[in-house]
């Protein structure tokens, strides 16, 4: 995980420019809209785990009336978020040890949680449960099957891992979540595998 964070720390400005342009075509929109529609609070409080530079996901949520708390292990990313959206709450934190002492109407871990090794991913589900409000929503991406993969970004190798779908379902259930949506390799969303679950 340290190497992953180092990549994002060293390339935060480039990432912000590259990722920010994605807002023009926001492939994540159907899932974000489904999340927002399922939240009962007037100004729902969303925890964005691995928030990156805040674009396009946090921006989309903020523009639709959500209050966002973003957590990322890369200080440079968090600083970009704080500069863009100073009215929101941005925290430098390792998701594996997250302990914010509050609960959120929704938690998003989009393209972040899958940088963890398998055991660390398993350990995240109690952390999600610890931070989710009753009937809150959890939205995250994974791989389509159990395994590891090495991608490349900014000329460096980037680690990804996934559990099997059956294990994600088991972990969600064991931690008080019910699966609402599970889409594998969504062609309308850049081939993402997406999970949306609701807390009891």
UniProtKB/TrEMBL annotation:
GO terms for molecular function: methyltransferase activity. Gene3D superfamilies: Vaccinia Virus protein VP39 (3.40.50.150). Signal peptide: none annotated. GO terms for biological process: methylation. Transmembrane segments: none annotated. Residues 46-136 form the Methyltransferase domain. InterPro entries: Methyltransf_25, SAM-dependent_MTases_sf. This is Methyltransferase.
């Amino acid at each position: 995980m340290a190497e992953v964070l180092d990549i994002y720390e060293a390339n935060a400005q480039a990432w912000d420019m590259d990722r920010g342009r994605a807002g023009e075509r926001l492939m994540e929109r159907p899932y974000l809209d489904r999340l927002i529609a399922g939240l009962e609070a007037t100004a729902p409080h969303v925890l964005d785990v691995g928030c990156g530079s805040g674009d396009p996901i946090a921006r989309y949520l903020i523009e639709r009336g959500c209050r966002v708390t973003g957590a990322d292990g890369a200080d440079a990313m968090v600083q970009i978020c704080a500069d863009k959206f100073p009215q929101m709450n941005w925290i430098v934190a390792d998701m594996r040890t997250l302990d914010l002492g509050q609960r959120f109407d929704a938690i998003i871990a989009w393209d972040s949680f899958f940088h963890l090794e398998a055991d660390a991913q398993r350990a995240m589900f109690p952390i999600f449960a610890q931070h989710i409000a009753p009937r809150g929503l959890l939205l995250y991406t994974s791989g389509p099957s159990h395994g590891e993969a090495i991608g490349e970004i900014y000329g460096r190798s980037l680690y990804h891992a996934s559990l099997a779908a059956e294990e994600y379902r088991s972990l969600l259930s064991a931690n008080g979540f019910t699966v609402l949506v599970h889409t594998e390799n969504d062609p309308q969303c850049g081939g993402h595998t997406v999970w949306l679950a609701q807390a009891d």
